[in-house]
């Protein structure tokens, strides 16, 4: 039995080194009908229907794209109910009574290596669209869109930086699924007819880097190498990663593909492997559950659709149960807060943080400039905040808040505990209106 966490610092050092816990799949699994990107959906199954694991059970509509909905277990559709989604909103979920057989949809056929070698970029796009592959690093951006161009790609960057504090799920994935992640990278080399892949990982993960470097020495892994990068936040932001790995500055408003670069999160690469090799949608993922509000922070390998409460129980429940809790889905800097633990783990939930609530009163701005010095996109958060308070739309637009990546640093550094990032989010909404 591991010792209970006594400080936040303990959680950082402990988690990445322990193997992930593989849970029994719960008796009931929940699949979201809508999500943050898709407000409409059509569900093809009704109560009492049998479903296979990986079966198409509905379609979400995101306006400019559709997103297939798959069941992550085999069993019987048991009803519909509302729970919190990672977006922080309550949405409807399909409830499936798990038959614990894990029977895959028989229509999903694997591909041989010879078939995969002949796939075009357009074929990859179609496979990933059908498998509803999205950015599993938390972006939830539809992955197939990255394949819908004919740009010459010179280098593929794999984002394994996981730069937000506390989260170590990608480290566990890389250690436990080394061969599949490398195979997924080879598929990307086929898709983009590209000879070079760089795996960007923080320098501090020395044993992980050594493990990958040794494996990559084999002839069949030619063209793939590890690129250690700095241990700071927001190093995982794609623009910062490209600058560190390649020395290229991507100007605001331009895409990495215009510079011959494609980039993918390492969890997404694992999902791409399953989709291309087996035609299977993502049905499980690695996730960190941590923070000083739970007893035993842990990394899990978990079935998509598992209720968060199941994971919290496996973490030994709440530490200091008498104290109010703060729930964050995603990292502490960019994650979304949740009003309760009544939440379902969907495929883009990288982590759940549970903190004991600490009251911090907002003070007046003392014009210290910390938010301005810290902003990685060279914005002036304090001025934007003032413009929002004054409802000065022209000034807001002139300060260009749409460049903000919502990294949360301006809030983190604010000596007066002002939630500066919330003002910038509001400024972005103003800037998008006429
Ligand atoms: S959240 Fe704040 S620090 Fe981060 S990019 Fe936006 S304005 Fe800059
Ligand atoms: S960090 Fe906070 S106190 Fe300092 S200038 Fe920015 S908003 Fe004001």
Report on this model:
This protein is α/β, with parallel strands linked by helices and 434 residues long. The protein has 3 domains: 8-106 and 282-356, no CATH class; 113-278, Rossmann fold, CATH 3.40.50; 370-432, no CATH class. 28% of the residues lie in helices and 21% in strands. The strands form 4 sheets. A 6-stranded mixed sheet has the order 1-14-13-17-15-16. The longest helix is centred in the middle third of the chain and has 14 residues, at 178-191. The radius of gyration is 22 Å and the shape is globular. Residues 1-12 have low confidence and may be disordered. Bound molecules: iron/sulfur cluster (SF4) (2 copies). One iron/sulfur cluster binds next to helix 13 and helix 14.
Task: State the gist of this model.
The chain is an alpha/beta fold and 434 residues long. The chain contains 14 helices and 17 strands. One iron/sulfur cluster (SF4) is lined by residues 365-371, 382, 413-416, 418, 420.
Any chance you could write out the topology, listing elements then pairs?
Elements: H1 8-15, E1 21-22, E2 28-32, E3 40-43, E4 50-51, E5 56-61, E6 66-70, E7 75-84, E8 90-98, H2 113-117, H3 121-130, E9 155-159, H4 169-176, H5 178-191, E10 197-202, H6 206-216, E11 224-229, H7 238-246, E12 261-265, H8 266-278, E13 284-290, E14 298-303, H9 308-314, E15 325-329, E16 336-338, E17 351-356, H10 370-374, H11 381-389, H12 393-398, H13 409-413, H14 420-432
Parallel strand pairs: 1-14, 9-10, 9-12, 10-11, 13-17
Antiparallel strand pairs: 2-8, 3-5, 4-7, 5-6, 7-8, 13-14, 15-16, 15-17
Helix pairs in contact: 5-8, 11-14
